[in-house]
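Pantothenate synthetase, pasting as requested.
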Amino acid sequence: MQIFTTTQDLRTFICQFKSQNPQKTIGLVPTMGALHKGHLSLIEASLTVCDCTIVSIFVNPTQFGENEDFNQYPRKKEADLHICAKAGVEIVFMPEVSQMYPLDSTLQTTFNAPAAMANVLEGKTRQGHFNGVLQVVLKLFNLVRPDKAFFGRKDAQQLLIIQKMVQDLFLPLEIVPCPIVRNEEGLALSSRNAYLSPSGITQALRISASLNAVTKAIMRGIKDSYELKRIALEVLEGLEVEYLVIVNHELQNIEQIQKNSTLILVVVRIEGVRLLDNLWF
Ligand code: AMP
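C-alpha cells follow.
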C-alpha cells in the first residue's frame, strides 16, 4: 500500500497509472477517517469492482460550522492505515489541510450546492455544510479522476446532492451508493457513536427500532406519510428528535410513499450527539 500526503504525489501516481493501465479502473472512497465497518464496506465494494482502490482520509474544515466539532473530530491515523492495508487498498491519500486548501482564501467555498436540496434538513442547522462537502468532493474527483466513487446511504442527503452535482456538471464518473452498515443491535455505525455513553447507546437503538416499525407498517400496506411518522415518533417518544421526514429524492415532503423514490430521514440528538439514520424505500 502506498500512502500519499501531497496532491503532487497523488497526481503523479494517477498520471502514471492511467498511462500504463489505460483499461484499468480506479475506485475512490472519500472518508474523514476514524474508519469503521461502514467505511470498510465501501472499501470492499470498490476493491470488488475496481482495479485500483484509493481511500482518502481528510477531515474537511469547510464542511464544519464554527461551533462544530472540527478540532475534536476523532483522528486515528495508525488504526486507519492498518484497516486499509489489511483490506488490500492500493493507495491511501491523507493530506494536511494546507494541501487541499493551499491558501487561506481557498477555505472559502467556491461551489454552491443547489439551495432547494442543501438548505434543508442537515443544511438547515449546518449552514454551508454541503457547499463544503461538494468543494472537497469535487477537489478529490479532479485529483483522482476515478471511474467510480463510493458513498454510504447513511449520509442520504449528502449522497443525493453529490449525485445531483455529478449529473448537473456531466462529471465523467459513476457514483455507487452503498447500504448502511449497522452493529448487531441495529445502530447505524458512525464515528460520532464514540461520543456516546453506554446508556446513550441503548437510547440510540430506538432510532433503528423506529425505522423498523415503519418498515413493518409499510409491509402491512400503510402508505400515508403522516401515519408512518406517527408510528416512528411513538418509538422515539422521550428522545430529542431534531427531525423526522418522509421525502422524495429531491428532498421534498411527500404525503404518500412510493416505491424506489422515498426516503425516511431521522436525526435524534442523544447526549449532545446528533445521530442520523434513514430508510430508503
Ligand atoms: P465519513 O468518514 O463520515 O465522511 O464517511 C465516509 C463515507 O462512509 C460516507 O460516504 C458515509 O456515508 C459512509 N458511511 C459512514 N458510516 C456508514 C455506515 N454505517 N454504513 C455505510 N456507509 C457509511
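Note for the archive: The mean pLDDT is 96.
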